[in-house]
UniProtKB/TrEMBL annotation:
Signal peptide: none annotated. It holds the Pfam family adh_short_C2. This is 3-oxoacyl-[acyl-carrier protein] reductase. One of its GO terms (molecular function) is oxidoreductase activity.
């Protein structure tokens, strides 16, 4: 099995690279920060680091250029948004948040779908799409768009390609601090714990072989959506 993981330099991406590698899969670990991708792959004989900006089609094409077929494309790369009132969000901030968190799925689908015959495109979404927080307008819009786009792609690309979304809740990753939250946010969740990167990685591994699942939105959220 050949697996591509973007945003592989930390958090969910790093956990996913390690989970897939543990199954014996070959993994292309891509991140905009090559050094972090390299650190992720340390000690993993089946994982290779790559630098890629997921918003740039040419970067994604270069990442996949040597491979006629891939089995899993986990489009996981994302960035947080600083909490601020709607009126204070600049157009540049809006565009960047949507580019990385939503447009990257469009780019991934166009480039990877022809190589995913019988495979799966997995997208990291967010429970914020159904449980929005004030002050995160761009991030909420991006993640809501991810679900709509992914479900549309699932219908369009079937039966050759499955497309699914994993919606994390507040997760124990570096992005949590990027939103201005800390571990105390876990106390507001029904399970009283943060989502761990490995929780999301396990879901991605499941979706890699769940051949009857497409257009699904998996909430891995410690109960946030209740």
């Amino acid at each position: 099995m050949l697996v591509v993981v973007t945003g592989a330099g930390s958090g969910i991406g790093r956990a996913a690279v390690r989970r897939f590698a543990a199954t014996g899969a070959r993994v292309l670990a891509a991140d905009v920060d090559f050094q972090k991708a390299h650190e992720t792959c340390a000690g993993l004989p089946y994982a290779t680091p790559h630098r890629a900006d997921v918003t740039r089609r040419e970067d994604v094409e270069a990442l996949l250029a040597k491979h006629d077929r891939i089995d899993v494309y986990f489009n996981n790369a994302g960035i947080p948004e600083t909490v601020k009132p709607l009126a204070e969000i600049t157009r540049e901030e809006w565009d960047r948040v949507l580019d990385v968190n939503l447009t990257s799925l469009f780019v991934a689908a166009q480039v990877a779908a022809p190589k995913l015959k019988g495979g799966v495109l997995i997208q990291t979404g967010s429970i914020i799409a159904s449980r929005p927080r004030a002050g995160l307008a761009a991030y909420v819009a991006a993640k809501a768009g991810v679900i709509g786009l992914a479900r549309g792609l699932a219908a369009e690309l079937a039966p050759d390609v499955r497309v699914n979304v994993i919606n994390p809740g507040p997760a124990n990753t570096p992005m949590l601090g990027g939103f201005g939250f800390d571990a105390d946010v876990a106390q507001a969740l029904p399970l009283k714990r943060l989502v761990e990167p490995e929780d999301i990685a396990d879901a991605a591994v499941y979706l890699a072989t769940a051949t009857a699942v497409t257009g699904a939105v998996f909430n891995i959220d410690a109960g946030r959506d209740l």
